[in-house]
Write a structure and sequence with these properties.
7 helices; two-stranded antiparallel sheet
Length: 170
């Protein structure tokens, strides 16, 4: 167990901190937390609402509204501050808000569409979450791959093209 913790710490320092990927990593972690927490709450506590009340008159307040407010707040904080600590807190707020928005993306995309009912459990939600997760993983971890790819493949291609290239006038 101690070896696993040591390996994770080493991975954190090498892959996240040294390559300056802390902000995308924080956004990714809080995105995942928000998505899975909201799904678990909807499954086990169907009447639960983040605000404590779920309706204004007869209108149901969905949690993507909270997500939109969080994303806007986080963006504003990043623009007005120079504090690294506030920027990281803002990244966490942004990731959590983004997770709340994406959690209800299937509902947003199916409501009002001809022939479709509003469907919170729409498959498109899971497709988009998969694309977002892959996007985050590419942003966080794909840099070293491109360095290796460039050093091995591209340099060999240039070497081969130089061998087969002809000088002008021949």
């Amino acid at each position: 167990m101690i070896k696993l913790i040591r390996d994770l710490k080493h991975l954190w320092i090498l892959d996240i901190i040294k390559r300056k990927k802390v902000t995308p990593f924080i956004i990714f972690v809080f995105f995942m937390l928000a998505f899975f927490i909201s799904r678990i709450l909807v499954i086990y506590f169907p009447g639960f609402n983040i605000l404590g009340f779920g309706f204004i008159d007869t209108y149901h307040i969905h949690h993507y509204y909270i997500g939109i407010a969080m994303v806007l707040l986080a963006g504003w904080v990043v623009f007005v501050t120079d504090s690294q600590r506030l920027k990281r807190i803002s990244a966490a707020i942004y990731g959590f808000g983004f997770g709340l928005i994406i959690d209800e993306i299937g509902l947003l995309l199916t409501c009002g569409t001809a022939g479709l009912q509003c469907d919170y459990w729409s498959r498109i939600t899971y497709d988009i979450v998969t694309y977002v997760i892959v996007g985050f993983l590419i942003i966080i971890y794909f840099g070293p791959f491109w360095k290796v790819f460039h050093n091995i493949i591209i340099k060999r291609i240039h070497k081969i093209t130089r061998i087969f290239s002809f000088k002008k006038g021949n």
